[in-house]
Amino acid sequence: MQERRRTNAERTHATRAALVAAARDLFVRAGYAATSTPQIAAAAHVTRGALYHHYADKQDLFRAVAEAEAEAVAREIEERTAADPGTAAAERPDTPDTPYGPDAPDAPDARAMLVEGARAYLDAMGEPGRTRLLLVDAPAVLGPAEADALDARHARRTLREGLGAALGAQPGGGSASNGSGAGDDVARDLADEERLDALTLLLSAAFDRAALALDAGAPPGPLRAAVTELVDRVCAPSPGPRPRS
User: Which of 15, 36, 51, 175 suits 203 as a labelling partner, its CA being 20 to 30 A distant?
Assistant: First the structure.
């Protein structure tokens, strides 16, 4: 049986995928600075002309690698948190760093999913080379602003969504009207959004530091326990009105 000829789109996809895979491997093994485009082309079994047809330069190819890695992290988080919350909690091992074990009181679903998402982030970042690519190399190669935008599109986006759901589920966490004027409601909604943005940035930074520590060989137990404690403290009902700055 004659093999079907690939379309131009299929050939383009295959070439780009081969270049990204080869570049990722070399960036992880040798480092970005020590990797050349001829090495990448040779490893991908394509010509340098093909490489430059698809990517402007080595930085552009690194950008594609980083995008693929960030997408993979977000996908892992979304897949883990898309499971039924009760099932996810029951399937987590009942260890000292897991207060949501089968014998523990049920936590609000949104909070349990936020913990699950944080742990999924750390697990996803455990892919060899990924922490270095996203947290060390990306800011250096692409610049802090572009690396931050990459995170905002992927992992930090999922964190903001999960945190928003968890905060909205707590007593007083919503922004429903209490009979005040429309202007007060708008101001309250804006304050809630600003608080959510600030908490997302702080939690994201904490989780990034945890990923870097794990990549450097830190024991995972205490860090995973700290992630759970941090989420619990952030999502705890507020004791009263927050002071105005």
Answer: 175
Please enumerate in sequence order all residues whose Cβ is within 8 A of that of 50, keeping only pairs 6 or more positions apart, or say none. Answer: 15, 19, 41
Q: What is the pLDDT of residue 204?
A: 97
Distance of CA 236 to the CA centre of its chain: 23
pTM (2 d.p.): 0.80
**Mean pLDDT in consecutive groups of 10 residues from the start of the chain, 245 residues:** 74 95 98 97 97 97 98 97 57 42 50 94 97 98 98 97 84 47 62 91 97 97 94 78 56
Torsion sign, CA atoms 46, 50, 56, 60: negative
Domain boundaries defined on the chain = 7-55, 65-235
Q: Which CATH number fits domain 7-55: 3.40.50.720, 1.10.10.60, 3.90.1150.200, 3.30.450.40?
A: 1.10.10.60
Tally the C-alpha atoms within 13 A of residue 36's C-alpha that lie toward its C-beta. Answer: 4
Two tokens at 118? 């944080």
| 65 CA to centre of own chain | 15
Distance CA 105, CA 96 (A): 14
Give SS3 for 200. Answer: helix
